[in-house]
């Protein structure tokens, strides 16, 4: 028997956070005082995660997304992806990463069976990137994206959180990337998580404003049918 929620929607997708650790300190994600990481013994082992995935696959789950923290900081990830790919019924595996370690892992992950990848990237300006993330890793992220292209990942999705009067002058430039690269750019609304001091209503940019601004550089055509597995609406 498959999994169905209270709205009679079939559940075929599972998101798995394999670590709470991260090699960046994004201001809208981690509070200024930091966070206390779980002890390694408190995390599910890869064997334990695979037991859960096997049960879920028997109930109709076909798609897995690996997240963190930053999933690439956990040792043994490549081998785990290969084992995950071998689970009967699992058809799709994707991963969300900040891209800092992607150059090292893109090809091995692709060879292990990973086919879809999302890279969180809020600015293409080194100064702004450092201010958002607390790191100077922008060049490494772009090298990782280029290595992922060479490895065969397509499309590569870029997750962007636009903030008014900070990186909103880059919205059009991110959208223009889709003219020259096989990228899907995903603009994500700024949400009140992490530090309460960071989230401000005046920094919020609505999807209505985003569509108006992006529409000025080219006609936006809805991609139909939209996959209604989440709140996103897709345009070309």
What does this 3D model show about the protein?
With 236 residues, this protein is of the alpha/beta class. Helix content is 31%, strand content 15%. The strands form 2 sheets. Strands 3-4-5-6-7-8 form a 6-stranded parallel sheet, with helices on one face. Strands 1-2 form a two-stranded antiparallel ribbon. Helix 1 links the parallel strand 3 and strand 4. The radius of gyration is 18 Å and the shape is globular. The model has no long low-confidence stretch (mean pLDDT 89).
Q: In what range is the share of β-strand residues?
A: 5-15%
Low-confidence stretches: none
- Tell me roughly what share of residues is in helical segments: 25-40%
Instruction: Supply the number of helical segments.
Output: 7
How far from one another are the termini?
A: 37 Å
Strand line-up across the major sheet: 3-4-5-6-7-8
- Return Rg in Å: 18 Å
Topology readout:
Blueprint: E1 3-4, E2 10-11, E3 13-17, H1 46-58, E4 63-67, H2 77-85, E5 92-97, H3 102-112, E6 116-120, H4 126-133, H5 138-151, E7 156-160, H6 171-180, E8 183-187, H7 207-215
Parallel strand pairs: 3-4, 4-5, 5-6, 6-7, 7-8
Antiparallel strand pairs: 1-2
Helix pairs in contact: 2-3, 3-5
